[in-house]
Specification:
This protein is an alpha/beta fold. It contains 14 helices and 10 strands. The longest helix has 23 residues, at 255-277. The structure holds zinc ion (ZN). Zinc ion is lined by residues 158, 183, 187. Zinc ion binds next to α6.
Length: 402
């Protein structure tokens, strides 16, 4: 979107209080906020590794509890909400078009189930009424409210933070396909009950699954989650794999397509390296290629075909340089870089060495200065085993890819 010239303010909230966090804190006998801080740090480390830009705002649910209590108060005073023994609930009969987002009627949604919260508390007026506020049990984290000590319901957290930070009628609300119902439906229901316009558009992404279409398990050796994945493979290869799948489709992750992404990425890096060394004339990006790319991205973010355009442009640039047409080659190469940048896929030419490798080379130098030659040799062998040429001169150690 930013590549298209749209100014983007992205809000991505952190749910730092909910039933699962409290359960885990009790089970592991740890403070709940220690768990949420740790998880948040792990999450952003993985996002950094994937070159995912930081959202403009990262609000935490616990910073907005006062505003949530205020919103629930408004719903209570307009009779859209009611209190029971275990919390405060939204009366969905006060929302005339409830179910609009899920495109299903209520009976289907309820029989489809999936979410325990849909059914539950015996005193609810309607089975689909959902908790805005949950009274706390002894020892649980809690905040004051006019109805009793407790914590906000998950659906209330999101609607308050999005309306507060982005305002009414904000452009786009995203999330996993599993959140369409009940979570997003219920966020929207609260806004409707408040008489406020909520998101204008919704986009729901598919799940990451293994090659059998099941939830990720053991299909990638010991890799079962994102943290493992970005440690075992070039994170850019995973980014490429995501780009080669349409966002609404399930993302199949298996050894075969990870391997083929690693290979495709090496081809793109190799191309960037060749172009950097080819001393091409300065040319702006080929307009025809960019127009095609834009058309695909404008069509519901068709990244698989956009990736295909990138590979095709690489192929054409290679042909152009072989036939001596450096002008055309330069325009195509610039287009490849621009398209890759738009997709957040950062290509590396040979001179860009991984920061961790550069660190090791510096440690090698430090060991030599300290006359710890055993350590220096060990680091040299380790770097060579990782595929680097290690050149030690008076100026220090330089590594480059073999
Ligand atoms: Zn949400």
């Amino acid at each position: 979107m930013e590549w298209c010239g749209i100014q983007v303010r992205l809000v991505s909230n952190i749910t730092d209080i909910d039933d699962k966090i409290i359960d885990r804190a009790n089970r592991e006998n740890r403070p709940w906020n220690e768990i949420t801080h740790k998880c948040e740090a792990v999450w952003f480390d993985a996002m950094n590794a994937l070159d995912v830009m930081r959202p403009t705002d990262v609000p935490h649910a616990t910073e907005y509890v006062e505003q949530m209590v205020e919103m629930i108060g408004e719903l209570m005073s307009s009779d859209s909400a009611y209190a029971t023994d275990d919390g405060v609930y939204l009366d969905i009969s006060s929302v005339p078009d409830y179910g609009l987002l899920a495109h299903q009627n209520l009976e289907d949604m309820l029989s489809g189930g999936g979410d325990r919260e849909v059914l539950g508390a015996a005193q609810k007026r309607h089975p689909a009424d959902f908790a805005l506020w949950k009274f706390s049990k002894p020892g649980e984290p809690s905040w004051p409210s006019p109805w009793g000590e407790g914590r906000p319901g998950w659906h209330s957290e999101c609607v308050v933070m999005s309306l507060q930070l982005l305002g009414e009628g904000f452009d786009l609300h995203c999330g996993g396909a599993d959140l369409r119902f009940p979570h997003h439906e219920n966020e929207r229901a609260q806004a409707v009950a408040l008489g406020k316009t909520f998101a204008q558009h919704w986009m729901h992404n598919g799940f990451v699954v293994d090659t059998e279409g099941e939830k990720m398990s053991k299909s990638l050796g010991n890799v079962t989650n994102l943290v493992d994945l970005v440690q075992h493979y070039d994170p850019r290869a995973y980014r490429m794999l995501l780009l080669q799948t349409h966002y609404r489709s399930p993302v199949k992750v298996g050894q075969d397509n990870i391997d083929s992404s690693v290979k495709s990425l090496a081809n793109l890096d190799g191309f960037a390296d060749r172009m950097a060394k080819a001393a091409l004339p300065e040319k702006s990006a080929d307009t025809e290629v960019l127009a095609k790319f834009r058309e695909l991205m404008d069509n519901d973010i068709d990244t698989p075909n956009a990736m295909a355009i990138i590979f095709d442009t690489v192929r054409r640039a290679n042909i152009a340089i072989e036939s001596g047409d450096t002008e055309l080659c330069a325009a195509l190469a610039t287009a490849v870089h621009e398209m890759c940048n738009a997709l957040g896929l950062m290509l590396r030419s040979g001179d860009d060495i991984d920061a961790a490798i550069v660190d090791r080379a510096q440690q090698l130098d430090a060991a030599r200065v300290a006359k710890d030659f055993a350590t220096a040799d060990a680091i040299r062998i380790e770097l060579q085993a990782a595929g680097y040429v290690v050149e030690t001169t008076k100026a220090g150690t330089r590594v480059r890819l073999a």
